[in-house]
TrEMBL record:
It comes from Agrobacterium bohemicum. GO terms for molecular function: ABC-type amino acid transporter activity; ATP binding; ATP hydrolysis activity. GO terms for cellular component: plasma membrane. It is a peripheral membrane protein. Gene3D superfamilies: P-loop containing nucleotide triphosphate hydrolases (3.40.50.300). The lineage of its organism: Bacteria, Pseudomonadati, Pseudomonadota, Alphaproteobacteria, Hyphomicrobiales. Pfam families: ABC_tran. Residues 4-238 form the ABC transporter domain. It comes from the Bacteria. It is found in: Cell inner membrane; Cell membrane. The keyword Protease does not apply. This is Amino acid ABC transporter ATP-binding protein.
Length: 242
């Protein structure tokens, strides 16, 4: 069953057409990696899926919701579709636990006691059970990003979107974040992730999708796509990143 179904989505910023008829699916339990050059439309695609950007035509269904720009519908959508960005933006004046409890409390009306339980469980899943009462500044960048993932998990999403979540981290800190995502994959979490980590995409994603100039240029099982890129554009991207 498709958790995310994108059909013929067109998205323009003024005269600039950024998504030129994108269609793709993410099935239950699948991990799909979205790769491509900077500016190819990857972030815009993710932002359209959880309604952070409107699009001009086409349709998106995610976690049982039709994506449309209606505040009540967007709230319901975002409960089920988690998104984690490169910048983790934790509140510095709140503890790790309080940061994670905030969304369930405010957007779902979860009681403080229940939010506490959700937050502790989420922290456990990212391997930071002992950091509940600590302030973000006490943590490394990698740990802060794991807290941001826990914050999203505490909403109990049906699908998670990741937009280059390791790109702002020093190389020695990316591994711990990728391991958390790998563990979520093992637990069966459905995920769509934009990444520059090609080894990670190849080894963890079931499907890899290559975007180029606002279109899906190539897509398929990761092992095949990386072993046998069909187009000169993907061949060039894989050999030198452009
Ligand atoms: P990627 O994530 O693949 O690097 P983006 O989706 O961020 O690509 O951007 C795709 C294109 O859309 C780029 O040309 C970018 O400059 C443009 N773009 C992104 N956001 C905006 C915006 N808010 N206003 C105008 N242009 C934008
Ligand atoms: Mg981007």
């Amino acid at each position: 069953m498709s958790v995310v179904a994108i059909d013929q989505v067109h998205k323009r910023y003024g005269a600039l057409e950024v998504l030129k008829g994108v269609s793709m699916r993410v099935e239950t339990g699948q991990v799909v990696a979205l790769i491509g050059r900077s500016g190819s439309g990857k972030s815009t695609m993710l932002r359209c899926i959880n309604g952070l950007e409107a699009f001009q035509s086409g349709s998106i269904h995610a976690a049982g919701h039709q994506v449309e720009q209606d505040q009540a519908k967007l709230r319901a959508l975002r409960k089920d579709v988690g998104i984690v960005f490169q910048s983790y933006n934790l509140f510095p004046h709140l503890t790790v636990g309080e940061n994670i409890m905030l969304s369930p409390r405010i957007t779902q009306g979860v009681s403080k006691a229940d939010a506490d339980i959700l937050a502790r469980k989420a922290l456990e899943r990212v391997g930071l059970a002992d950091k509940f009462a600590v302030y973000p500044e006490m943590l490394s960048g990698g740990q802060q990003q794991r807290v941001a993932i826990a914050r999203s998990l505490a909403m109990r999403p049906k699908v998670m979107l990741f937009d280059e979540v390791t790109s702002a981290l020093d190389p020695e800190l990316t591994g711990e974040v990728l391991l958390v995502i790998e563990e979520l994959a093992r637990e069966g979490m459905t995920m769509l992730l934009v990444t520059h980590e090609m080894n990670f995409a190849r080894s963890v994603a079931n499907i890899t999708v290559f975007m180029h100039q606002g279109k899906i240029w190539e897509a398929g099982p990761s092992a095949e796509l990386f072993a046998n890129p069909q187009t000169p554009e993907l061949q060039a991207f894989l050999s030198n990143g452009v």
